[in-house]
Write a structure and sequence with these properties.
Layout (H helix, E strand, L loop, with lengths): L1 H16 L20 E6 L6 H9 L17 E10 L5 E7 L2 E5 L2 E5 L2 E9 L3 E3 L3 E3 L12 E8 L5 E10 L2 H7 L11 E7 L1
Antiparallel strand pairs: 1-2, 2-10, 3-9, 3-11, 4-5, 6-8, 6-10, 7-9
């Protein structure tokens, strides 16, 4: 009988050692990371949605416009600038506009112009400052400097996007009177720079 009691006590201690020892809730925590995105650049397309901007700029952001008439006084459409960002830092977009130039027989000819820009599409989280950059001036051989200004800024977090239409206006009549030399290589640039605030 003593043996039986000893075996039952050992069995009882063994079963109680492996029995459930508590109740309550447990938690599985999920975490994720989302990287900020920035797409910006020039396109020939008037993108009417944020997804269209992203898709268009993913393919590139540099653009070349051919066939401008330097002897016309009319504003000439030159494409669109697009911005798409989701980063938490606020962003500022600066445009630097350089004149068209060509060098022929050692003489450099400068053709200034005025860049105009207008909002086509976008959300209210991006503000646009002004509507023109540079000035309409007759071509010369003495030089013309690059002009620049901040033209857009983001104002909130989350998705921020904007599409601007761009146009260039030359002093066509003045350029005709000046007598620009023949060349198909007049080139200038518009540089868009995005910086975090």
């Amino acid at each position: 009988m003593k043996k039986l009691i000893a075996i039952l006590i050992i069995a009882l201690v063994t079963f109680s050692t492996f029995a459930a020892s508590g109740t309550g809730d447990t938690t599985l925590t999920l975490q994720a990371n989302v990287a900020g995105k920035l797409y910006h650049g020039f396109t020939p397309n008037d993108n009417t949605s944020a997804d269209a901007v992203k898709a268009d700029i993913t393919l590139g952001g540099d653009e070349t416009v051919n066939g401008l008439n330097l002897e016309s006084d009319l504003a000439q459409p030159i494409g669109f600038y697009n911005l798409y960002t989701t980063g938490n830092a606020q962003a500022t977009v600066n445009f630097a506009v350089s004149p068209l130039t060509v060098t022929i027989s050692g003489t450099t000819y400068y053709v200034p112009y005025q860049l105009s820009y207008a909002t086509e599409e976008g959300n209210e989280k991006v503000t646009v400052t002004g509507s023109t950059l540079g000035s309409i001036a007759t071509a010369n051989t003495t030089g013309a400097s690059t002009v620049n200004a901040n033209i857009m800024a983001t104002t909130a977090n989350g998705l921020r996007w904007k599409t601007l239409s761009l146009a260039a206006t030359f002093a066509g009549t003045g350029n005709t009177t000046f007598g620009l030399p023949e060349s198909s290589e007049y080139t200038g640039t518009i540089l868009a720079h995005v910086s975090a605030q």
